[in-house]
Amino acid sequence: MSGPTLDTAGMADMTPAASSGVEARQRQQVLWMSTVGFTLMFAVWLMFGVLGLPIRTELGLTPVQLSWISAVAILNGAIWRLPFGILADRYGGRIVFTAMLVVTSIPAFLVSQAQSYTQLLIYAFLAGLAGNSFAVGIAWNSAWFPAHRQGTALGVFGAGNVGASLTKFVGPALIAVVPAAGLLGGVVPGGWRFVPFMYGVLLLVMAVIMWMGTPRTDRMPGQGRPLKNMLKPLRNMSVWRFSLYYVVVFGAYVALAAWLPRYYVDVFGLELSNAALLTALFIFPASLLRPVGGYLADRLGARRVMYASFGAMLAATLVLSMPEGHIVLYLPESVEPSGTREVMRFTMSVWLFTALVFVVGCAMGVGKAAVYKYIPDYFPRDVGAVGGLVGALGALGGFFLPPFFAYGERFTGMPQMTFLILFLLTLVSAIWMHLTVVGFLQKAAPQLKDDFERPATAAQRGE
């Protein structure tokens, strides 16, 4: 990648070993600062998954109205990922990420002041800007790390998805502890409003820390390149294929992170605090296993990891989508005096549900890193643009899926429609990936195209 790397004036007298040590330290600064910043931004982006429940009580919202509060925040966290990824490539991740932290603090404060459903929709949409920080961090870290370490580095950065758990853990406790009237005579709002206010303060603090704690001379692989040239790779069908994969492993993750607290409360009758903790059992593996996914993708290849991820998701979501009930058999009275017999009774317990959702989270965590391993391999000079589009379309899945979940449940009366929708989406993605792999193999070895039964000849075995 092109662009400035280090301050050459300050490195003129350094030995190669010293220069390498400085560069390694700067890489780590970029990685860890961007990861912490992304964790906070992700918490802001998905804070309505928990806050939505006390908001629903206060404003008297329907499930569909509640789903749109999370959806509009997710929408704004998706639609700008492509331009923000390009900006990071062109002007450097340091300045773009810091600016985003400052700007996002404003709607976070506004959310804490919302008094109506309309106001809340507007402010939630604006606060959703936080979700675009992912594209900035991906481009920023890709510019600093060599190809053979990008999978692991991007996996570590992507573990910032664990920010979705911050509100799950601290939200219910803060809502209970901080008086509804607020603190300091009402200057600091109380109840659920304290959480977005607190996030607004933390965003400003993080902006200062990031600006002071990252290399002043940044890397800008897109500097000086025409915009048309940077957008050219988006014509490649692989970009859109990767985007669909990312809808499955990330868009659905975002949707479930916001949807599961309500699901636990409404379907299993749990308290909000318990629902939030059990939702965290989905969020943690879906976030913290991302570095593992990046490592495996570096070692085994992204395609093998995606096969495993899709397979695990298909198995788990198939069971999760099963409605509770039983099959009724009509039998002769000589066999069954009542004339009927109930068989294959199935009831989903909260613990089985949680275990299966945990499996889905593990598969998503590994799969998210594998998708982004594809991008620098296929498009090494265009990670900002391609990663931005893949991230945007993936996050748009997080926007569309919660309303689909709500309407599916409304029309069928079955909450399990959430997981049937996810099963079908995963199945389509897995089929597309497999057909692509088969196409690659046939193109590489057309002479074996129709050899399904015959053993390979000596010539084909290379003997």
Describe, in plain words, how this protein is organized in 3D.
A two-stranded antiparallel ribbon has the order 1-2. α1 packs antiparallel against α10 (194-213), α3 packs parallel to α6 (117-127) and α15 (302-320) packs antiparallel against α16. It starts with 15 loop residues before the first helix and ends in a 19-residue tail after the last helix. The protein has one domain (8-448): Growth Hormone, Chain: A, CATH 1.20.1250. Helices cover 71% and strands 3% of the residues. The longest helix is centred in the middle third of the chain and has 32 residues, at 237-268. With 463 residues, it is mostly helical. The chain is built from 18 helices and 2 strands.
Features:
18 helices, two-stranded antiparallel sheet, 463 residues, Growth Hormone, Chain: A, 2 strands
The helicity comes to: over 70%
- Taken as a percent bin, the fraction of beta residues is under 5%
The biggest sheet, with number of strands, parallel, antiparallel or mixed sense and barrel status, is: 2 strands, antiparallel
Oligomer: single chain
How large, in whole angstroms, is the Cα Rg? 24 Å
CATH homologous group name: MFS general substrate transporter like domains
Mean pLDDT: 82
Which architecture does the CATH hierarchy give at level 2? Up-down Bundle
List segments where confidence is low: pLDDT < 50 over at least 5 consecutive residues. Answer: 1-12, 458-463
- Outline type: globular
* Tally of separate domains: 1
- CATH topology, what is it called? Growth Hormone, Chain: A
Number of strands: 2
Report the CATH C-level class: Mainly Alpha
Distance between the termini: 42 Å
